[in-house]
């Protein structure tokens, strides 16, 4: 993997390998877009991204191949994240946000996630949430 220590914005469309690059060399990233990434339940995309200290915007979209049924935001995950976009994830049926996860989140976009029948109740923990966009 390339070493790009000053990289601040990265759009990946699509990922050839289901594994995302290791994050230590990308600590300055503030924006990450994953599109058509072919991620599966076996490889949790959140696990390798949750500790990026400067990440403000994360988008996981256009992934008709995503086979994962759930995304789980654990306590301490994505402490600086301000905007999250999830869209076109056709197998995703549940999103869980633990009480101390994504504490800085201000904007949440959930688009075209047909198996997600309702807005996740656990978003009540998002105390700084100002904007919720839910389109199914």
UniProtKB/TrEMBL annotation:
Q: Which domain of life is it from?
A: Eukaryota
InterPro entries xref list? LRR_dom_sf (IPR032675)
Q: What is this protein called?
A: Disease resistance protein RPM1-like
Q: Which organism is it from?
A: Trifolium medium
């Amino acid at each position: 993997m390339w070493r790009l220590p000053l990289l601040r914005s990265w759009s990946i469309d699509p990922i050839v390998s289901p594994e995302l690059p290791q994050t230590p060399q990308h600590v300055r990233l503030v924006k990450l877009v994953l599109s058509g990434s072919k991620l599966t339940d076996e490889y949790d995309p959140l696990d390798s991204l949750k500790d990026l200290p400067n990440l403000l915007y994360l988008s996981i979209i256009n992934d008709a191949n995503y086979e994962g049924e759930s995304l789980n935001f654990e306590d301490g995950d994505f402490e600086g994240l301000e905007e999250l976009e999830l869209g076109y994830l056709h197998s995703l049926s549940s999103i869980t946000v633990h009480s101390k996860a994504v504490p800085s989140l201000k904007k949440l976009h959930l688009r075209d996630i047909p198996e997600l029948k309702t807005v996740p109740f656990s978003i009540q923990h998002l105390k700084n949430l100002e904007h919720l966009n839910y389109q199914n």
